[in-house]
Design brief:
Rossmann fold; globular; Sc_DH/Rdtase_CS; oxidoreductase activity; oxidoreductase; NAD(P)-bd_dom_sf; SDR_fam
Amino acid sequence: MNITGKHIVITGAASGLGLELLKQLQPENRISAIARASTGLETLRRTFPGVQIHEADLADLASVEAAADQLARGGRKIDVLINNAAEQYTPHFLDEDFRYETIRREIDINFTSVCSLIYLLLPSLLQSGPSLIVNINSGLGLVPKTSSAVYCATKGALNIFSQALAHQLEDTNIRVKQVFLPLVDTAMTRGRGKAKLPPEKAAAAIIRGMQSSRPNIDIGKTRLLRLIQRLSPRLAQTIMKEA
């Protein structure tokens, strides 16, 4: 799919990888950004006056529905939906600082809102012309690590959901792609890991993959992880256990 002159919706677009995707896609496309008020929306408005901004908390279904209603108002067409927003909590269930309320929030942002937005925006995506749904996943959607158990589960669920959704939509104008990322250098990963992928490089790789025919876009170290998992699932689990 040629990513030029399209209406592209990006979740989590006010910071990190989402912001970098916006920067690289905005010059040749019309962008609608979905983000929380606490993630720099006012700066986004000043910096990119041509971007349509929708404030929404993706952990709140009513907020998701309101944003989708605004996006689809008047029968507007959407060419690309990029489900990028995600939240990750690292404490183990046995840790004193584990917070019970984060379970629901992590699931709702990382998985439930993706399913909901896709369903609510399907009429706009089904309009004439090729359309694309891009679900930003992680190597943790292939093999989990020890920490962030709920996050890993949401990414595993997103993997299976995306495959099934692709089957459901194969006779329509919509294609479904997944992006499997290594550790990207964003606020969410601050203080964790080494040799992290810069967000501008991750965004550029995602955009190249969006224009390819591949359903899965494996970036950086996730290509090796998928190969190891195929050859030796036990070795992949051992490697990722302490990642």
